[in-house]
Design the sequence.
């Protein structure tokens, strides 16, 4: 690209420009097609949520509905209980993410910065949980909870969410705490700060960026859980405690029996819209949080 | 410094270790114990040696499920990584000489969104997208003269439909992940290549991919783990939960049904143990195949 070399590279640059233009055209088409493929089903769900059953079966998926009425949304919210499932999910995820972060960072901190016998053993015990899929142990897990009287309770679900989120949280945060400088640590000790105080007032604030990433990671992961709630929230009266994913899957089955597709589409829209709003606001942090989790 | 160290360590570790030990470690260990019993989930536990494994060996559905898991295990990472790499390269030009196409930020935002949706909700949506009548999005789009496509109701295509949904959901995440990786490749490398007159394609294969190898390895492992699961998709989308006629059955589905529907806790645990060894094999193979820069 230097001017002195101009005569020698003039030709290659010219042909390269043409190549770049042609490729850019193709690139735009491919990217645009994938954007449509991504957004298409979601837009279709939104449109169908306003349609009557007859309109849904007309075979014009992207035609506008003849009228926009919110009746289907009222049905989804109250009769199909989307409101309740939504609040159940919020409740469970709020408590279990908070618990995961508290216990995960406590364990990670001790394992990363204190030497004691069994340290490595415990660390690898936590990390090995990353390697195996949850449903491998789903059968005994159910019976452990049953023996503790925790089947079909929020407490049981929350404790299990925390336990199964610990491997990644500990793995990620231990690396983070390890990298924090020792000088500040020592200075605090000299000033007479207790271990606990040091953790909450010095180490936690210093690890803030890592804590935020892994909090986002855990919120998204726990909010999207399906297998654990389906296995744990069962039995008499379980449906009042279902979380969102479970509730929607059930509405989908019910919709098939009663041919009430528009209620299903309204329920889906209600579950997707809040995510779009949150994503629109925090899109940068969410992308960073989730991918940081993968790279570390 | 030493004052109160051990009480502190024990205090901080007690709750996390207790939770993890009770619900994760104990559950995994009991899988191995229950695999050697004929336990139904109620009453006394009786051991039956290797009966469950003998039964597994002769269970056609088990072998078909293993086959389906392997199909996903091979195709999900290959297809997802290929698409995501190309898109990430187009959006960033590998961080190098050109700046990437216009609107790259917009694309990254749109592509990533499915990653935030629960697989269960994605499954409900695509169950409707693939509906065999005109109410389905795809059959509604196709002209009437094409006889309605069966999608999930067609034994030959059902599993591929599920694979397609997994790819649909995953691509955006890996576009963002690879973009981050490409962003950290130094500009000078690309500038040098540009001066040498390297074409885009050779830049892609000779610079971007080798320098991104570590990230690709991570992507492969993540997608491999995802391929072993697929429970939500199969449970919600597929005809008859694993059908038609077993065409979409996977190991997670088999474990769930045996444990919670057929009252075969022992047999379900044996499938869990088989899965354990499959996962170990996958991990070992991945480490072997992708070990490249180690020496």
Sequence:
């Amino acid at each position: 690209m230097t001017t002195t070399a101009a005569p020698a590279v003039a030709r290659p640059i010219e042909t390269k420009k043409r190549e770049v233009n042609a490729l850019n055209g193709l690139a735009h088409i491919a990217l645009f097609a994938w954007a449509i493929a991504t957004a298409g089903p979601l837009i279709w769900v939104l449109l169908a949520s306003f349609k009557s059953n007859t309109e849904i079966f007309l075979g014009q998926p992207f035609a506008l509905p003849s009228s926009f009425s919110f009746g289907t949304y009222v049905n989804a919210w109250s009769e199909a209980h989307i409101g309740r499932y939504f609040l159940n999910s919020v409740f469970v995820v709020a408590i279990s993410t908070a618990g995961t972060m508290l216990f995960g960072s406590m364990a990670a901190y001790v394992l990363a910065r204190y030497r004691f016998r069994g340290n490595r053993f415990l660390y690898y015990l936590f990390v090995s949980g990353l390697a195996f899929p949850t449903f491998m142990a789903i059968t005994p897990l159910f019976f452990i909870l049953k023996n503790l009287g925790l089947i079909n309770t929020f407490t049981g679900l929350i404790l299990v969410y925390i336990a199964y989120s610990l491997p990644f949280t500990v793995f990620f945060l231990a690396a983070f705490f390890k990298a924090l400088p020792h000088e500040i640590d020592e200075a605090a000790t000299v000033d007479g700060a207790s271990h606990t105080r040091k953790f909450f007032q010095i180490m936690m604030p210093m690890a803030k960026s890592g804590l935020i990433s892994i909090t986002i990671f855990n919120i998204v992961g726990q909010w999207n859980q399906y297998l654990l709630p389906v296995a744990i929230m069962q039995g008499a009266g379980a449906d009042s405690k279902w979380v969102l994913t479970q509730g929607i899957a059930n509405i989908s089955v019910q919709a098939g029996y009663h041919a009430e597709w528009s209620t299903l589409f309204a329920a889906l829209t209600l579950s997707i819209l809040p995510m779009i709003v949150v994503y629109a606001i925090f899109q940068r942090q969410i992308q960073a949080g989730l991918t940081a989790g993968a790279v570390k | 410094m030493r004052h109160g160290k051990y009480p502190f360590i024990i205090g901080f570790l007690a709750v996390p270790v207790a939770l993890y030990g009770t619900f994760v470690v104990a559950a995994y260990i009991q899988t191995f114990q229950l695999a050697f019993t004929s336990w139904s989930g109620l009453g006394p536990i009786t051991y039956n040696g290797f009966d469950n494994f003998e039964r597994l060996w002769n269970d056609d559905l088990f072998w078909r499920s293993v086959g389906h898991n392997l199909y996903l295990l091979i195709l999900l990472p290959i297809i997802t990584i290929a698409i995501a790499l190309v898109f990430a390269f187009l959006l960033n030009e590998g961080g190098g000489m050109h700046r990437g196409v216009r609107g790259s930020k917009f694309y990254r935002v749109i592509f990533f969104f499915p990653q935030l949706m629960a697989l269960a909700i994605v499954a409900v949506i695509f169950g409707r997208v693939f509906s065999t009548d005109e109410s389905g999005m795809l059959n509604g789009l196709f002209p009437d003269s094409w006889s309605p496509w069966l999608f999930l109701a067609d034994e030959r295509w059902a599993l591929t439909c599920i694979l397609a949904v997994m790819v649909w959901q995953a691509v955006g995440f890996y576009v963002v992940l690879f973009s981050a990786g490409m962003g950290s490749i130094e500009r000078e490398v690309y500038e040098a290549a540009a001066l040498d007159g390297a074409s885009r394609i050779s830049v892609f294969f000779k610079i971007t991919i080798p320098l991104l190898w570590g990230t690709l390895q991570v992507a492969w492992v993540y997608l491999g783990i995802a391929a072993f699961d697929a429970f939500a998709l199969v449970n919600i989308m597929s005809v008859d939960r694993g059908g038609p006629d077993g065409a979409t059955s996977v190991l997670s589905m088999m474990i769930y049904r045996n444990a919670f529907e057929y009252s075969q806790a022992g047999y379900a645990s044996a499938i869990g143990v088989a899965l354990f060894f499959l996962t170990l094999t996958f991990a070992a193979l991945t480490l072997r195949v992708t070990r490249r820069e180690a020496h």
